[in-house]
Amino acid sequence: MLIDDAHQFSLIVPTYEGTPFLRRCLDFLQASGFPGHIVLSDNSTGEHLDFVKSCPARYPALWLDVHLFDPNVRFLEKLAQTMERLDGRYVMLCGQDDFILADNVEKILLALEADAGLSCARGRVARFFIRRPANEEAGQPSIEVNPHPMLGYSDPHAESRVLMHLGMYASTLYSVHRRAPLIENFRLTEAFTKNVIFFQYLSSSITVAQGRVACLDELYLARQIHFDSWAARLKDNYEHWPLLITAPNYSGYYAQFRSALIDILTNRFGSVDDGSLGAKIDRAYVQLAKRSFCQMGLDDDADSAFFGRLQSPGSPEHKLLNRIATFTLRYPDTF
């Protein structure tokens, strides 16, 4: 196996002020017998920091290391420094509030090992929300499932892949990556933009430029929608959607992203800019905006088929999600 060899793979959990979720994450990994190297990349404070420091002793059955950083460190800088301390060929990021399925991560690793032209690979994602009943004495929480499209990009040309990716955006961040190119990616991204939305767009675009992206038809990650998530906490911040589009710096952030992408494609990946590349990026970005705000252009047959299986009692995907949701209900401080 690749997943249990630290010279091949490490699972990186970026942690910050999230003890209830991290406890649940590690409990799940331990209960499922996760065999691989886990790194907590942490910049917490106070009691959260104390919990992170205690995790190797609390979870002796897990192969667990802790990397500590200043509370003010930037997200991508923290991850780049964490990866520089490792020697494995592959890494995967796992949110402290996420669930991963090790058997299918191993399949993704094998796909990367078999195809040197892949920059990263991922599978399907189950995204769910736990709704509490209005009267908790009258009923049980209910589970709602939401689509979370995951796509592959197989065009042989970097520019074509990037434009397709931008127009049909599915973030590559929580995929399984080759470690060395991802470090370069995060360093490049940090040099060009600091906005929380556009660094995600740019980082994902660089990953897609670096190589093809595979999407296996396997459930490998479950993501919970909840009010303490990073995105939810930033929803009233002008650095994040939806207020970002009204922010005074919005046009500047987009111009920064656009010029960075032109620079990277022309200077690193062989694109020739005859003056039309910026317009192509603009059109792809408009398509991304339509998807984000108008839910237009979301159809993908393979992903729709997966979502159908996820909602079908008795299917393997439904059973896996039910197992994860049942596990989550044991942690009422996380929903």
Gist?
With 335 residues, the chain is of the alpha/beta class. The protein has helices spanning 19-31, 46-58, 75-84, 102-114, 158-167, 179-192, 196-210, 230-233, 250-268, 277-294, 301-310, 316-328; strands at 9-15, 37-42, 63-68, 90-93, 98-100, 118-131, 142-146, 176-178, 212-225.
Shape: globular
Secondary structure: number of strands: 9
The helix count comes to 12
- The domain count comes to 2
Specify the biggest β-sheet: 9 strands, mixed
Using the CA coordinates, give the radius of gyration. Answer: 20 Å
Q: Helix share of residues?
A: 40-55%
User: What are the low-pLDDT stretches, counting only 5+ consecutive residues below 50?
Assistant: none
State the order of secondary-structure elements, H for helix, E for strand: EHEHEHEEHEEHEHHEHHHHH
Instruction: Name the beta content range.
Output: 15-25%
- Derived from helix and strand composition plus strand pairing, the structural class reads alpha/beta
In whole angstroms, the N-to-C terminal distance is 35 Å
Q: Mean pLDDT, rounded to whole units? A: 94
